[in-house]
Amino acid sequence: xxxxxxxxxxxxxxxxxxxxxxxxxxxxxxxxxxxxxxxxxxxxxxxxxxxxxxxxxxxxxxxxxxxxxxx
Length: 71
Description:
The structure is a single chain. The protein is of the alpha+beta class. It has a single domain, classed as Roll (Urease, subunit C, domain 1), CATH 2.30.40.10. The protein has one helix and four strands, in the order E-E-E-E-H. It has a four-stranded mixed β-sheet, with no helix packed on it. A hairpin with a 5-residue loop joins strand 1 and strand 2. The chain is elongated, with a radius of gyration of 17 Å. It starts with a strand and ends with a helix.
């Protein structure tokens, strides 16, 4: 059984995919991967939200350093 299924997420190229997560790791990203699958939690994005790789807030290290220096 999967820990999490994210259904019908939209990739940047417009393709609709499902994501299966097990033991905190992505095990599958493909269309209709959630068919006949079960999970502890399911999130349905209804083809309206985009999925992308993790984003890094590059300003945080700089701002935290400035705040430290201004003490």
